[in-house]
Amino acid sequence: MRRRALLLSAPLLLLARPAAADLVYVLNSGDSSISILDAITRQELRRIPALREVHHLVLSPDGRELLIADSGGNEIFFVDPATGDIRRRERVSNPYHLDFSPDGRFLVICSLRRNQVDVYDARSMALLARLRMPEKPSHMAFRPDSSVVYVTLQGSGTVAAISLATFQPLWEVPVGREPAGIVWHRGRLIAGIMGSDHFAVINPETREIEKQIPVGRGAHTIFAQPDGRALWATSRVQSRLAEIDPSTLDVRRVIDLPGGPDCIAFDPDGRIWVTLRWAGRIARVDPRSGEYETIRVGRSPHGIFVQPRRAETEGLVQTSAAGRGANAR
Amino acid sequence: MIDSFNHALDDVTGWIFETLLQPLMYQAGLMDWADDALEWLEFGLFGVFSIIVVYVVCRPLEAWRPVEPVTDRRAIRTDIIYTLLTRLGLLPMVAFVLLASLQAWWEGSVADSGFVPPTLETLFPALREMPLLAFAIYVVILDFGEYWRHRFQHTFRWWWALHSIHHAQRQMTFWTDDRNHILDEVIAALWFGAIALLIGVPPGQFPLLVLVMRLAESLSHANVRLSFGRIGERLIVSPRFHRLHHGVLSIADHGKNYAVLLPVWDWIFGTADFKRDVYPRTGDPEAPEALATGGWLRQQAVGLKRMAGAVFGRGTA
Question: Coiled-coil ranges per the record (chain A) (predicted)?
Answer without folding.
Answer: none
